[in-house]
């Protein structure tokens, strides 16, 4: 049996009415962040 190392990766998605925010955390530290703006048509 192969043991895989534990990976502490968390993806956070915060949806909103005018924008959504997405962040990637590794080992408790934020490594990426994006903000997606929504048009009124969405």
UniProtKB/TrEMBL annotation:
Family annotation (SUPFAM superfamilies): Actin-like ATPase domain (SSF53067)
EC number: 2.7.2.7
Provenance organism: Lacticaseibacillus paracasei subsp. paracasei Lpp71
PROSITE patterns attached to this UniProt entry: ACETATE_KINASE_1
Entry keyword Nucleotide-binding: yes
Nucleotide-binding is among the record's keywords: yes
Keywords: ATP-binding, Kinase, Nucleotide-binding, Transferase
Protein name (record): butyrate kinase
Recorded family membership: Belongs to the acetokinase family.
GO molecular function: ATP binding; butyrate kinase activity
């Amino acid at each position: 049996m192969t043991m895989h190392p534990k990976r502490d990766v968390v993806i956070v998605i915060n949806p909103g009415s005018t924008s959504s925010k997405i962040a990637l955390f590794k080992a408790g530290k934020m490594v990426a962040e994006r903000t997606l703006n929504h048009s009124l048509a969405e």
